[in-house]
Amino acid sequence: MKEKIKQMYEGFVHLFFPNLCEGCSRSLVADESVLCLHCKQLLPRTAYHHIPENESAMRLAGRVPYSYGTSFAYFTEKGLLQHLLHGLKYKGKKKTGVFLGTEFARELRTTSWINEIDLIIPIPLHAKKERERGFNQSFVVAAAMGKLLQIPVAENGLLRVRHTESQTQKTRLERLENVSGAFKPNIAIEGKHVLLIDDVLTSGATLEAASLAVLEAGAVGTSFVTIAIAS
Ligand SMILES: [Zn+2]
């Protein structure tokens, strides 16, 4: 009976607020969420996860000791992934974060290295920014990943102790100076292999600074994943 009422309610809601595909605006069918099957296939996935020296991992090579690094899909100007991330970050579409985290985790589940991870920590926003936005988009993604992979997620495992300026107009060295010392662990991470999650990988300076903070606090290893890799 309860199930029947739920179905009726969902049907009623759907009548007035149909779930539309974020890619092509067509109505989604029962098993689809956020993207229709067709648009889901158009996501420019990297398939990096089984390749140790992939482009994402190599972006941090020689800068910080890490075990594994990978990204879910390519970020292209005006592309589908940019549209999805924009909706998540600026329009509060958390469903999109859950969708991306789940899709990503399904791929990571096929690797053996994911079993080495003890703890997932999303890259935090500065407290002021999080207050303005109301949530940390990387946590939404991380929570969905942790759920599927059955790995604990520490929402506030790292604190952003210093406000950092926008990175876009800076050189690589300036970017690192801008973020170094920006993070401080907020929980005991000694002896753990920590997986850091960020939304977009550009220069890698943010992940570099966060990895260093985690290692300084006694983590035995760090790895990182990002939803997108920008060129
Ligand atoms: Zn579509």
TrEMBL record:
Taking every annotated instance into account, which residue ranges of this chain make up the domain Phosphoribosyltransferase? 138-218
- State the CDD domains in the record: PRTases_typeI
Pfam family of the protein (one): Pribosyltran
- Record's superkingdom? Bacteria
Q: Which InterPro entries match?
A: ComF/GntX_DNA_util-trans (IPR051910), PRTase-like (IPR029057), PRTase_dom (IPR000836)
Query: Which residues constitute the signal peptide according to the record?
Result: none
Q: Coiled-coil stretches, from where to where?
A: none
Q: Which family does it belong to?
A: Belongs to the ComF/GntX family.
Q: What is this protein called?
A: ComF family protein
Report the source organism: Taibaiella soli
